[in-house]
Model the fold of this input.
Amino acid sequence: MFEAMGLETVIVSTIIGACALSFGASAYLFMRARPAPEAKDLDKIVKNAPYHRLHNVLKVEAGS
Amino acid sequence: MKTPSKFKRRPATALVAMANSLSMGDDVPEDELSQIISAVVLNRAERAALLAAIRASNDPDSGLAVADLLTAFAIEAAEAEAQARDADQVIGQWAQRLAAGALLASFGAAIAGTLSGGLAFGLTLLSFSGFVFATASRIGGRVKMRRRAQERESADSLARHVLEAGKLKPDGK
Done:
């Protein structure tokens, strides 16, 4: 079955296959390492936090 | 240490507010909570402000609630760190090895004369760029892994300090 293939074809396809696998794995790793987009602006979260629950616990300034 | 009578609205006080709100049964969005905690644990000023706020708090349970949130965050960070390490060791390392093997194979084939000319050059270039790409992606993954490890350690130590701060009375005794 493989006798008809030349040595050159075997080597070229092996190298290209290994490179393709390596590229695919690296691209996957890059996608994983990409920082997740921030859900919301931090200032907005700080401003909208439930400070009314601290009413008797801790005095927090009314404004920002 | 004297604590201010009124605290500013900042991530540290927002975290105390969220912890109190959670212990009273209110719903706080999970992503907002994680974002606030990661903003607090890696910032020295916020850590200090959090400890001061816990000391000044009139509710002895708020320190416990905040410490528990910090510990839960540390566990999440540890899980993310372990996943990143697995990906690096299982996928990243083998991507690098495959590309290095392809590079050596193309060198060998070119030296032995099986491949020649443009094909040999093209394959060498392809496998070399694959090796560089794999190395770069591994470095990127490891940077993320280190950041998660740092977050885990910071959150763990802050949780311990918050518990200690909660034991002190507001007048420092």
